[in-house]
Backbone:
């Protein structure tokens, strides 16, 4: 019988950092090829190692589907080879975790989070589906003993009825306030997980999820908004974060489940969960079909009643929309704790922000984009969104309420990546920013744009053969 766990949310008091036990060795140094690699692989090797390298010789790609597929296959093969030759850090072989006792499991992976090693279990339940396993990245809570919380969270992952599936359950380098899942060093960890999962033959690249418990719920809620373009969905349990930390607008196109007990009063989790549901309900009404969500706050359940709050069974059939016809992107910063700075992403779905719009931007003043494509026309609304807090909860000294004010943005620069599922590349494309036409004309598909986008996203679904650079 799996025990209920005290999935603690820490205060700001420092907690002792547990000692990390010795972990199994990871794969050794990659072997160097005997013969020189091709120019595309060499370029990717430079990107991965952080060295300057020249783009391969460019060439135009005919707009036919067969030609585009051939080029994509070649580029993805070069990307895989570059990773094999350059990357010293690999996902371990999957271990079967069906019916294991979480207290006796030996971790089979260990990577760095910043300068500190963090171990994890990478394990499978059930037989691999034809299109690969769904991957649940499962985040634990912030009790003073990180190992205890990690093992309990692993146990719930084994128990949840979501197979066939793969679980990656990382252990925070520290418990207590050292357990924060959203700082730049953690972002770097998860981006490395995405890249390796996308390269794996075991994982379905359209079925990656964040789930988490307590502090892991806060983490998975923020990470869902930050990385929605990589995800099929997210499922925080026993959480409920402030909306300034995780804009719900970014969650179009993913399945989102937030389950919090109605008697889970700590840090206002019950009330904040209800408020997040209200905002998602509004967005789903405004944009029908885009904001799929299942938020529940059942009465009588407390912080450890996870058997009734499991989110992964609802999420497991969701699949990612890697190149959607609509999305919203509030460019928000994450970090500011554990001695780390804030960081924002520079790209989302098919947009890259090359230059932020004019104005004083910060934690509560952010760029925001709304994207639509139909009939060979792309409409982008570029805004500055100013966030203002409203009602203050005195019990927890937190500002629960939030209002947003949007004003038209100017002075920014974007790169819009395109493929044949978005527009007909044999015809003229129009791009409007804030209702003003900024581009009209034919867009040429070329190999180096596909190479550039592969290096940017590391995603087999987002190897874009065309792009338009826009100033507004």
Residues:
């Amino acid at each position: 019988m799996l025990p209920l766990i005290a999935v603690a949310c820490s205060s700001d008091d420092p907690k002792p950092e547990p000692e990390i036990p010795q972990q199994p060795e990871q794969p050794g140094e990659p072997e160097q090829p005997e013969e020189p690699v091709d120019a595309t692989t060499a370029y990717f090797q430079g990107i991965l190692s952080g060295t300057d390298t020249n783009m391969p010789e460019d060439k135009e790609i005919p707009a036919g589907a067969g030609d585009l597929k051939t080029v994509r296959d070649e580029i993805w093969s070069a990307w895989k080879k570059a990773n094999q030759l350059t990357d010293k850090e690999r996902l371990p072989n999957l271990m079967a975790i069906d019916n294991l006792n979480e207290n006796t499991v030996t971790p089979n992976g260990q990577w760095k989070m910043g300068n500190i090693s963090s171990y994890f279990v990478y394990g499978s339940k059930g037989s691999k589906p034809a299109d690969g396993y769904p991957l649940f990245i499962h985040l634990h809570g912030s009790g003073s003993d990180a190992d205890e919380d990690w093992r309990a969270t692993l146990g719930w992952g084994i128990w949840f009825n979501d197979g066939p599936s793969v679980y990656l359950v990382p252990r925070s380098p520290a418990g207590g306030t050292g357990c924060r899942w959203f700082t730049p060093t953690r972002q770097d960890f998860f981006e490395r997980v995405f890249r390796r999962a996308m390269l794996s033959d075991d994982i379905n690249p359209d079925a990656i999820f964040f789930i988490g418990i307590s502090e892991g719920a806060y983490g998975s809620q923020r990470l869902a908004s930050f990385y929605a373009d990589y995800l099929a969905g997210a499922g925080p349990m026993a959480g409920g974060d402030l909306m300034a930390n995780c804009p719900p607008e970014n969650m179009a196109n993913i399945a989102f489940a937030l389950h919090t007990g109605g008697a889970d009063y700590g840090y206002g989790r019950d009330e904040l969960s209800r408020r997040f549901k209200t905002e998602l309900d509004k967005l789903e009404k405004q944009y029908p079909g885009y904001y799929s969500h299942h938020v529940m706050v059942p009465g009588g359940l407390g912080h450890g009643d996870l058997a009734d709050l499991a989110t992964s069974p609802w999420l497991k059939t969701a699949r990612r929309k890697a190149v959607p016809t609509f999305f919203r992107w509030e460019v928000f910063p994450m970090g500011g704790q554990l001695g780390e700075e804030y960081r924002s992403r520079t790209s989302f779905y098919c947009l890259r922000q090359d230059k932020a719009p004019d104005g004083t931007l910060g934690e509560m003043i952010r760029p925001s984009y709304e994207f639509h494509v139909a009939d060979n026309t792309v409409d982008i609304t570029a805004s500055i969104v100013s966030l203002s807090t409203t009602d203050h909860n005195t019990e927890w000294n937190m500002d629960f309420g939030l209002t947003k004010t949007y004003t038209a943005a100017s002075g920014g620069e974007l790169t819009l990546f395109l493929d044949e599922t978005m527009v007909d590349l044999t015809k003229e494309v129009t791009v409007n920013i804030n209702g003003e036409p900024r581009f009209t004309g034919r867009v040429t598909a070329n190999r180096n744009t596909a190479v550039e986008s592969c290096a940017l996203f590391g995603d087999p679904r987002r190897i874009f053969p065309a792009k338009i650079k826009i100033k507004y």
